[in-house]
Amino acid sequence: MKKTKGYRHNEDCDCRFCFHTGQFKKGNQMRKGKSAWNKGKKAPQLTGINNGFFGKHHSKELKELISKLMKGKKLTEEHKLKISLATRGEKSHLWKGGITPIHRGIRMSREYKDWRTQVFERDNYTCQFCGKKGGDLNADHIKLFSKYPKLRFDINNGRTLCVPCHRTTFVYVGNQYNKLKIIV
Question: Who's near 44: CB < 8 A, 6+ residues apart?
């Protein structure tokens, strides 16, 4: 007769793992009728030093796994906006006291990105000077971004230009001329 290791469960056993029919209890059958250990308790604040993961980093393998699982998943516009608002300004972990220039903050805003997309879609992603479709495109302000703040997000003040055509515009050439003047 083969010897078995450990405790043998049978009909006479009164341990918490056995029915008295000799079968093991499965899953929640053991806790049926009892409330959860944390029912009614408030969860502790798990941010900063109170978080058990504070100061630790994910392994490279785990980062790759998370990346693989998230590939192809699209966030809704509403969700993107919520994330943007939750991490904007002083709420951001990168906040350094408001040192970002105003024009840069505007160009990085959701409103500006939406304006840019609308200009591209209106022009069918085609350069308005040379007619080239797709590629590396810029949304150009017809009236200057800096001198006409009320027209910054007006779709009629925008046009789609490819990079070479954008370099031929007055503002771009003017800026290059001013830089040369300073150097000389």
Answer: 50
